Amino acid sequence: MALIVQKYGGTSVGDVERIKNVARRIKGMVDEGNRIVVVVSARSGVTNDLIARAKAITPNPDEREMDRLLACGEQETIALMAMALESMGQKAVSRTGAQAGLFTDSLHTKARIVKITGGDILEKLDEGYVVIVAGFQGVNELGEVTTLGRGGSDLSAIAIAASINADICQIYTDVDGVYTADPRIVKKARKIPVISYDELFEMASSGSKVMQARSVEFARKYGVVFEVRSSFNNEPGTIVKLEVPSLESLVVSGVAVDKNQTKVTLSELPDQPGVAAEIFESLGKAGIMVDMIVQNIGRGGKANLTFTVAKDDASKAEQILNEVSGKLGCKVSLTGDIAKVSVVGIGMRSHSGVAGTFFKALAKENINVQMITTSEIKIAVAIDLADADVAANLLHEAFGLDGDK
Amino acid sequence: MALIVQKYGGTSVGDVERIKNVARRIKGMVDEGNRIVVVVSARSGVTNDLIARAKAITPNPDEREMDRLLACGEQETIALMAMALESMGQKAVSRTGAQAGLFTDSLHTKARIVKITGGDILEKLDEGYVVIVAGFQGVNELGEVTTLGRGGSDLSAIAIAASINADICQIYTDVDGVYTADPRIVKKARKIPVISYDELFEMASSGSKVMQARSVEFARKYGVVFEVRSSFNNEPGTIVKLEVPSLESLVVSGVAVDKNQTKVTLSELPDQPGVAAEIFESLGKAGIMVDMIVQNIGRGGKANLTFTVAKDDASKAEQILNEVSGKLGCKVSLTGDIAKVSVVGIGMRSHSGVAGTFFKALAKENINVQMITTSEIKIAVAIDLADADVAANLLHEAFGLDGDK
User: Fold this and answer.
1) 8 A C-beta contact, residue A154 and residue A230
2) Which residues in chain B are closer than 8 Å to A72, comparing Cβ atoms?
3) Which residues of B97-108 are buried (b: 16+ CB within 10 A; e: fewer)?
4) What is the pTM assigned to this prediction?
5) CATH number at residue B253
6) Do A83 and B64 make contact, defined as CB atoms within 8 angstroms?
7) Per-residue pLDDT tens for B14-71?
8) Which of A21, A95, A215, B261 is 20 to 30 A distant from A102 in Cα terms?
9) Residue in A closest to B119 by C-alpha
C-alpha cells in the first residue's frame, strides 16, 4: 500500500526479455496494492551507439543536439516498458522528462535540476496507471531537451520521488546492495541493511560506485528514503535514509577502495600566499575535481603540494599544470600507482580511538601511508596501489566488519 | 534567395556519410543565399527495427506508446543532421514535430493534421539558422507524440511549407522525378518537368508511388508548390503545382500501372436497393478502400458486382464479404491476376477522342478489358496482369509520350 518510485538501469532493461521481466515485477507490486512510478534508462549499449554515431559525424558534436540525440535512448525504453505492461493487462503510460516536469538549467549534457513538478504523475496514478518516466533527461526554459550527465537516471528517480512525496525510491541495479567493502576485494564483506546518506555519500565519493554522490546529496536534501537493490532477484537491498539507529553499535559501516586516482605532486613551489589558489582555480575552471590535498614546506622556503585527481582527468590536469608551472617555476609529476582506502561510519563522531585502530591495522603489514585526509565520519589514506587490497581486508577485520562465516 | 523546405527520406539519410552529404548540399544552398528548412525521416531500417522490438514485446502494442517509440527514429536524425551542419560552420537547430507546431488529432499511428503553426521556424531562419524538423510526427492536444502514418514525412514537409509560406517544398527521394510511365515497364518513359496536382494525384492513386495521395491533396489545398527530385544527383526533378501551361499541348501526361490490386466479384446478388450500400459500408468500416466498381444486371433479377481493392486488404475483405454473402445469399470470388492501367492528363478535359485512342491502342494486341472507370482527367482499365506491361507501352506510344531517342 505504498507509493513507490522504481528505477531500472540499462542492464535491467537491456533487451526485450528483460523489459518483460521488469514489467512482471512491476505488475506484481501493483497487484499487492502499491502505486508505482518507474524511471528507466536507455537499454545498455544504446547510448554508446548514439554517441558513436555523433562522433562519426563530428568529433565535437553540438551539445544541445547531443542531448536531443541521447534522449532518444530513454524514450525508446519508456515506450517499450509501457507496451509490456499494457500487454499484461496493466494500464501504463509513458512520460518524457519534460512531461514529468523535470526542469533543468541549459548546461547541455550535464544539466542541473532547477525544479521538478512531477507533471500529471499523481493524477495518472489515481486513474490506475503505472507511470513510466524517461530517466536522465529534462527540459530547459526554452523547451529544449537536456540530459543530466552520468548517473542521471538515479537522479531523475530521486527527484521524482521527492516531487510526489513517495514512500520510497527503489534503485534497481546490477549489484544487490551496499556492502561493507567490495566483495571482490574483501571476501568477508557483508551487505549493509540500512545506512545513512552521509555514510553512503562518503563511500560513493571514495570509490564505491553504487550511486553518484550527486544523487545521494539530492536525496539527503529532500529527505528521500531510497533502497539500492538488484533487479535480478527479490532480495532486500540496502536502505539509505537520514539517521540510522545504531543497533549493532558499529563505529565503522564500511571500507571503500578507489583505484581510479592519480597523485599529482608540484615541487619547489614558491611558498607565497595565492600560489595554491592559482593552481586549484585553474583546475577548477577546467572542471577537474581535486580530492586529497597535502602541503609540506620544504627547504629554502620552497613548498611541495600533493593532491589527487580522477584518472580520467589526469592528462587534462597535467596539461594545465604544465602551463601554470612555467609561470611559477615549479616541477610537476604524476603517478597513477596509488589507491585511496577509506573507512566510513557515523559512529566515528562519538568514538575515540578510530585513528589508532586504523593505523595499527595498516602497520601490521608495513603499509606505507602517503597522504591522509579525515572528515567527521571518514578516514582516508593514499597508499601504494599494490597494497590496496591487503589494506582493505585488514581494515575490514580491524573494525569488526567481517561476517560470521 | 528563396525560402525552401527540403524533405529527405530514410534512404537519403541512411548512414552517417549520407547525412554529411545532405548537410553539404544544404550548406551549399544556404551559401547561395537561400533560407532552408529541412524535414527528415528516420534512417532507413530504424523504424522497422523499432517496430520489430515492439512486436517482440507484444503482438498488439499500445498505439500511443507505439507513436512514442516510432518518433525516436526521426529525433535521432534531426540531431545528427544539425550536428553535421554545425560541424561545417553552418548554424543549425533541430525541432521536433511538436516544437514545429504540428498539431494532430489523437488517432495514434495514423494521426491527421489539425493545425500547423511552424513554431519558431521563421524566427530561427531570421537568426541565420537552418532549421531541421522531425518528419512523420506531431503532437495532440494532450501533448502526446503522434505519428502521421505512411508517407507522413512528405506530409510534414508540405504542411510546414504551407505554414511558413515557403517558395517551394523540395521532396528529395530515391527517384529523380515523375515519369510519363514507370521506366522499368516503358523503356521510352521520360521525366515530366511540370505536372499539376490533379494529374499527380491520379497518377499516385493509380500506383505511381512517388508520393502518397494524401500529401498531394494537402499541397493542392494549401497551394504548396513542390518538386520531387533525387538526393543522389543535382538534376532538376518534377515540379508539381496548380495549373500547368500546356506548352506541348499534350493531352495525356502519363501512364500508370498498378499491379497491387485484387478483383472481387459478388455474383447472384439480389437486385434490390441497399444491397451495394450494405457491402461497401461493411468494407468501409474496416478501413478498406474500394477502387474500380462495375455492376451488371444478370438473368433472373440477379446482379453481379465487381470491384477492386488493394492486395494488402484482400484477405480482410474476403473475410468480411463471406459474412455479408451468407446473409445476402450471393457468391464471393477474388482474383489477384489483374492490373489497373491508367492514362492521366489535364488535357483530356478539353479533348475528345481520348477514349478512342485508348481502346484502339489496346485492341492492337487484342488486350481484353475487364473493367473501365473514368474521371475528368483519367481513363483506367482493369486487364489481365500478364497484359499490363504491353498495354502500358502501347498507350505510352499512342498518346505521343515516347521520348525522341
Assistant:
1) no
2) 72, 75-76, 79
3) bbbbbbbbeeeb
4) 0.81
5) 3.30.2130.10
6) no
7) 999 999 999 999 999 999 999 999 999 999 999 999 999 999 999 999 999 999 999 9
8) A21
9) A143
